[in-house]
Fold these 2 entries.
Entry 1:
Amino acid sequence: MLALLPLGAPALPLDEAGKYVAGAYIVFVLLLVIYVGIMATKLQRIEKELRDVANIAEERSLEDKAAPGRGPEGSSISDSLTPQGSRGGGA
Amino acid sequence: MYGKGLKPLSIATVVAFAVGFSLVFFYAPLDADQGFIQKIFYLHVPLASTALIGFVVGGIFAILHLRTDNNKWDAYSYVAIHISVIFGVGVLITGAIWAKASWGHWWVWDEPTLVSFLIVFLLYCTYYPFRYAIEDRDRQARYASVFAVTAGAFVPLNFLAVRMAQQLVHPRVFATSEGGLPSSMLLTFLVCFVAVALLWVTLVKFELTAKSASGQVNRLRRALDAPGPTGSSRIAPEVS
C-alpha cells in the first residue's frame, strides 16, 4: 500500500531542492528520536530506582517479620508501603 | 496523574502528522516562486510558532507559580520552556537548511527574523545554567519563574519589533501586501501547525509524567528513609 503512495503524488523534484527538503524533515525526525532516546534512558533510571526502593522495602518487611517486637518506628515504615501509604498526591 | 490522556493525545499527534505530511507532499501545490523548497515551511514555521508560543506559555505558568507558590507550576514552566528550546533547535536547523537552499548561505546576519529568533533561543538557553547556579530549591524556583516571566514578555515584543522592521527578506506566510496563502496551502499549513502543537502538548505531558514518576519514587525513598540516588538532576524541578 505504501509503495503505491508515490504513484498518486505529483512528480517530486528530488534533485537539488529535494535534498534540502528531505534534510529538513530528517532533522526533525532525528530530533524526535534523540528526545525519545533520552526519555527512554530517564525511564530506565526511574525503573532502576523503583526496583531499589522495592528491594529496600522488602528487606525492611522481612526484618520486621523477623523481629516483631521492634516498636512503632519499624511498623510505620512498612505501613507507608501499603497502597494508601505510598499513593502519591500528584496534582 | 500527569499521564492521564497521554495515550489518546499521542494517537491524535501521530494522526495529525500523518495527515499533515500527506497534505504537504501529495496535496499542497508547488510554490510558484520557491518551488519544492517551500515544503520546508510546513515544518519550519509551525515549529517556530509553537516554540515562541511555548515560551510565552512557560511565562504564564511562571506567573501562576509566583502567585500561588505551588511548585507544580514551576515544573510546568520548566517543562514548557524545555520542550520549546528543543523545538527551537529544530527551527534553527530547518531554517538554516532552507536558507542554504534559497539564499545560498546557512545563516544571514542582517536578517532580523533569523537574528531575533537566535537571540530568543540563546536567552532561553541561559535558563538552565541560571537554575543550576542556585542551590536552594525554593529560591531556584522563584528566580526561574521571574526569568520565565521576563523572557516570556520579551518574546511577543521581539516578534512585533521584527514585524515592524523594514527589511522583509524573510518570507511572510500570512497577510502580505500581495495577499495570503492560497486555500490549499493554508489548509496544509494549519494541519501541520495543529500537528506540531499537539506534539508540543504531548511531549510536555510526557515529560511531566516522567518527572512525576521520579518524584513519587523519591517520596517512597524518603518514606523508607533510604539513601538518595546518585546523579539525580539538581536543576529539574521535582513533581510529586
Note: Residues 72-91 of chain A have pLDDT under 50 and may be disordered.
Entry 2:
Amino acid sequence: MTEPAITPELVAKHNLTPEEYAHVKEILGREPTYTELGIFSVMWSEHCSYKNTRPLLKTFPTRSPRVLVGAGEENAGIIDIGDGLAIAFKIESHNHPSAVEPFQGAATGVGGIVRDIFTMGARPICSVNSLRFGPITDEKSEAAPAAGESAGESAPTHQVPAAIANNRRLFAGVVAGIAHYGNCFGIPTLAGEVYFDPSYEGNPLVNAFCLGVLRHEQIARGAARGIGNPVFYVGPATGRDGLAGAAFASQDLTEESAEQQRGAVQVGDPFMEKLVCEACLELLATGAVAGIQDMGAAGLTCSTCETAARAGTGIEIELDKVPQRAPNMSSYEIMLSESQERMLIIVHRGREEEVKRIFDKWDLPWAEVGVVTDTGRMVVKHHGKVVADIPAKKIADESPVYQREALEPAYLTEVRAFSLAGLADLTEPEDALLRVLAWPTIASKNWVYRQYDHMVRGSSVVCPGSDAAVLRLKADSLPELRSDRPVPEKFLALTVDGNGAYVYLDPYEGGKIVVTEAARNLACAGAVPLGATDNLNYGNPMNPELFWQLKESVRGLADACRAFNTPITGGNCSLYNQSPAGPIDPTPTVAMVGLIEKPEHITTQWFKDEGDVIILLGEPVDTADPLLGLGGSAYLQVIHGRKTGTPPRCDLETAKTLHTALVGLIRTGDIKSAHDCSEGGLAVCLAECCISRQEGRHTPRLLGATVHFETACRLDALLFGESQSRVVVSCHPLHATRVLERAKLLGVPALQLGTVGGGHLTIGTPAGGLTTSIEELHDVWWHSIARAMA
Amino acid sequence: MRFAVLQFPASNCDQDAVHAVRVLGHEADYVWHKETSLGAADAVIVPGGFSYGDYLRTGAIARFSPVMGAVREFAASGGLVLGICNGFQILCEAGLLPGALVRNRSLQFRCEHVFLKTATHDSPFTRRIPPGKVLRIPIAHGEGCYFADEATLAALRANNQILWQYCSARGELTDEANPNGSLLNIAGICNAGRNVAGLMPHPERACEPILGSDDGRFIFESMLETLTDRARAKAA
C-alpha cells in the first residue's frame, strides 16, 4: 500500500502548524511517515495534549492529604476515603460527537469515562452527567419583549421551529444514548443537570462523569513496566470507526466538518464493555498485570506511547497481530482508530496464561501484540516494515504549549451597564413563578432520569431530584480481592454544576459560583467535599476574547476550590465549541464528591412534615449588589427575555461559613430538610421544597408552606433574585429556637420564615406576595419537559 | 437456605440479588452460565441485566446457555425459580413461563418506583405479603410490557397465575399506574405448577429501609417460608 506524500497541505489537514511540523522533524531527525504524522496530529491535539490550557490548569489546587493519585498522573485521580478505601472519578466531554450523532456520541462518552475508571483498578459504581442544549420551547414568543432592549447583550435570536425541533432531537438522542450505555452496563446514572440556552444550539455539551471504588492496594497504573513484558490487546477488533476523533474534537464545528467527520463518531457496545470491565477486574485481582490502559482518544497510539512514557520504557508493537474488523486496514488507520471497548494490558512475563484463561472465560478476543523495551521508543511494525519509530516521552510529554492572547470581551461593557432602573417591578408574581418553574432549565428533569437506571447496584440512597445524590458504598461495591478485612459502609454525595450564563456575564465570579454551588449542594445533603473534577467547555482559544473567558473563569474556579479545600483531581478540556452561529457560553462544569459521616446525616431537599418550621440560612438578599441578585437570573431570562447584568457576587468566606454551619447543624440531628437557593431564587427554592418529593409513579407527596419576609426590597428581587449563600432548611417546631441560635453562633444569619403545611405556597413580603396551589406548581414543574418532548 | 444466582454475560443485578438474600440472613452463590449444575441450591434466582446485550431479543440468547438445562430440571422437580426483570424475560423465552415481554408503550426505558397489588396470596412467592398491602418497588426496564394471546391470558386468570399487577398508591388498577402497557396491568406471573415466577419490578432493590422501601422482603420471605415448610415436611 502506498502512503500519501507529506505535503504542507497534508500537514495543515492534520491541524499541525508549520512550527509544530518543524518540531516533529526535529524530534525525529527526519521527515515523518504518514502514520507518524497521524500519530503526532492526534497526540498534539488539544484533546490529548492540553496545549492551549496547560498553563491555566497548573493554577488549580491539585493536592490534599487525601489525594492518592493526582491530576494528570493517570487516567483518573484517586482520593482516600478512609479505612483503606479510595474512590477514582473523572468527568469527560463528548460534545462534538454528540452534535453529529447524538445517540452514539453520548453513549460512547459514557463508555469512555467508565473505561477510564476501571483502568485505574476501580469498580465503576456511579455515573453522572452534565448536558447543554439549545432551547426546546419557543421562548421568544412567550417572553414579553422588554422596553429598551439593546444590542450588545446576548439577546438570543428568534427560535425558528426547525431549530427547536433539532434541539429536541439532539436532547432526546443524547439522553437515550446515555441511558442505553449506562443501563446495559449496569451502572446507576444517579445525578446530573441540564440547561437549555440558545448558545448551545448546534453545539450541545455532553459531559459524562464516572466514579469507581477500590482499596488502596488495588490502584492500577497505566505504565509499561518491566523490560521484556508482553503487551496484550484485549477487547473487540479494531475497525475504521472513530478515526482520529480526538483531532475532530479539537476543531470548530461546522456543517461541513460535521458531515465529513461523521465517521469520526465511534459506535459503542455496552455489553462488550461490561465483559471487558469484569474480565479486567478479575485479571487485576490475580496480580499478573504490570500496567493497564484503555484505548480511548487516539486509541492504540495514545495507549502505547503514554504507557511507555510513564514507565520511562519503550514499547514495540506489531500491527499484523492486532485483531481487525475490516480488511486491508492501513497502519495509519489501525493506529488512529477509536473503536470502543479496547484495552492495552502489560502482563508480567510468565503469567500470560492467566490473561488467556480469563479472557477466554468471558469469550473476549485477546492478542499478544508487542513487548516492553528499554529503548524509550515507540516502535510500530506493519507487514514487516517499521511504520513509526518515535521517542515515546517526547510525543507524550513534550507537546507544544501555548500562552494564548487574552482580551477582555467588548460585550462586557454593555453587561455591566445594565441596571434595574428601567425594569418595572413584578405585578403578577403567581404567573411569574409558574413560568419560571416551567422553564426547562428549572423544571424537573424526571423526563431525563426516568430513562436512566438510577437504582441498579442497590446503593442509591438519594436518587435524582434532590440537591445532591447520595450513594452507599458496601463490600460488593469493590473489585474482588482475597481479603477478610471487613468493609465499613460509607456514604458519598455527588453533584455536578455549571451555570454558563453567569460565566458568560462575569467569568471570574461565574467560575467561583460553579464551584460554590457544587459545594453548597453537597452541604445540603450533609456532606463535606473531598475533591472535584472539572470539564472546561469553551470556544476557540485562538480568539482572544474567548480565551479571556477561559482564563478568568479558571481563576475563579481555582480560587473557589482552594476556599473549600477541594482539589481538582483531573478533568477534561473541550475547546472549539462553536457552531456557525457563534461560540457557546463559556461553560465549566464541576462534579464534586463529598463524604457523609453517618447515614443519619443524609438530608434531602423536600419538606417532611406539616407544622415544621422553615428557616432561611443566609441573607434574604445581597443589598450590596446593585442588581440585588437579578443579574443573569433565570427570572430576567424567562420574564424579560434578557440574559444580561452582572451576576450575583460570590463571597467565598461567607459561603464557607454557611456550608460549615449547615453541616454542623445537620449533624446535631435538628435539620429535617435543606435546599440550596440557586436559579430561580427563593420562590423556586421554596416551591421545590413543597413539590419535589416523589413517592412513586404519578404519586408526588406535596406539602404546602406559608412564609413571610420582613425585608423591604423589590418584589422581583426578593422572590427571584439569585444572591449567593442561601439555604432553606426546616426543622421540628420544638427545635427552631436552638437552630436559629446555633446558626447565629456559627456566624450565619438565620431567619424564621414560616411553617410547612396546607395546600398552597404562600409568600408574603412588604412589597406584595403570592399564593398558589401546590398541585398547580407541581404540574407545570414536573411535566414541562415531557410536554415539550411529547 | 441457599440461593443460586445465575450469571450470564452482562447480568448486572446478580450482585444485588446476592446482597438481598444475605441481608435476609441466608446464603447465595453465583452460578456461571456455562455451568451445567446448580450445586446444592434450595432456590434459583435469574437476575436482571442485559444478558448478551439484549441482542436479537431480550433473553433470547441466554435461554441457550448450558445452565438453563439445569434450571429446567430444577423447575421440573418442583424447585422454586424466581426471574427478576431480564430474568423474567429469560424464563419466558425459555418457555418456563407463558407470554412475552415487549417494548414499553412509551418506547423509552423507565426507572421509577411503582405500586403493586398482589393478585393472589396462593403462591410460594406471595404467601407472606400482608393482605391488602400495596407494595412499593422500583422498576428499571425498556421491554417490560407483558403480552400474551387471549387464550394464555384466560388460562392465567383461570389458574390464578397472575401474582402482581401495577396499581395506584391506593391499590386501584388504573391505566395511569401501568408504566409499560402490560396487558391486565400484569407485573408478574407464575407457571401452572406455581413454582416458577417472574416479575419486572426489582424486589432485590427494595429490601432495606435506607433504599427507601423494604417491601421486596415480603417476596423473598414468602419463598423462604415455603422452603422452610418443605424442609420440615421432608424431615418429618
Note: Residues 2-235 of chain B form a domain with the Rossmann fold fold (CATH 3.40.50.880).
